[in-house]
Amino acid sequence: MLDTAPVRTGGLLDEISTQVDDALETLRDLARGIFPAILADRGLIPAVQAHLTKSASSARLQPDASVVRVRFDPRLEAAIYFCCLEALQNAAKHATDAPVRVGLSALDGWLTLQVSDDSPGFEAGPHQPGTGLQGMSDRLAAVGGTLELVSVAGKGTTVYGRVPFSVAAASHAAESRAEPNSALMR
Ligand SMILES: Nc1ncnc2c1ncn2[C@@H]1O[C@H](COP(=O)(O)OP(=O)(O)O)[C@@H](O)[C@H]1O
Ligand SMILES: [Mg+2]
Questions:
Q1: Per-residue pLDDT reduced to its tens digit, 67-107
Q2: In this structure, are residues 124 and 149 in contact, taking their beta carbons and an 8 Å threshold?
């Protein structure tokens, strides 16, 4: 085409170049979404906060002092992070416009996530557990944890996800800044 229609070819190449840039940007966003660098680098609280900011969510993150600047085994952080995203998605989808709170704590050997929304809630039983809840449950079970859902019609829904952690395997973020790759003791 360069020989027979050089002007049109130039236009096409410009178009292709723009499309390739867009595709790369989408791919980068996707990769960041699948496993955001901030989760690996800085841990749960900054990663959840970054997600809330990026998705323009009004949900409030309320971490307990027991998780502030503390790092856990990356598998536990990933399990809790992705459950949190799914619970937030459910709240946005099934409890539209209701205030949502995200709690995190690490007490008595359990790293715990709590995502609560104010309404409409649903009665336990009649709803169909979809792939979302099943995926959360499977992900937590894979690291020894459990998922519990408490919902009361008219009063809202709370999702509790928890995974066991050992104190020896948690480390403080201040240490991990000095040695980013080796401070996570397993
Ligand atoms: N925060 C919530 N508020 C009200 N209903 C919910 C909430 N989370 C889950 N549900 C109910 O549980 C069902 C299963 O959730 P899920 O497995 O994530 O599937 P999906 O979101 O694709 O419907 C939902 O269809 C909905 O009826
Ligand atoms: Mg869902």
A1: 999 999 999 999 999 999 999 999 999 888 889 999 999 99
A2: yes
Say yes or no: CB of residue 59 within 6 Å of ligand 1. no
For residue 94, the ligand closest to its alpha carbon is 1
Ligand 1 within 6 A of CB of 117: yes
Helix/strand/coil (H, E, C) string of 70-104? EECCHHHHHHHHHHHHHHHHHHHHHCCCCCEEEEE
pTM over 0.70: yes
Q: Is 129 in the pocket of ligand 1 (CB under 6 A)?
A: yes
Please write the tens of the pLDDT for every residue from 30-62.
776 677 889 999 999 999 999 999 999 999 999
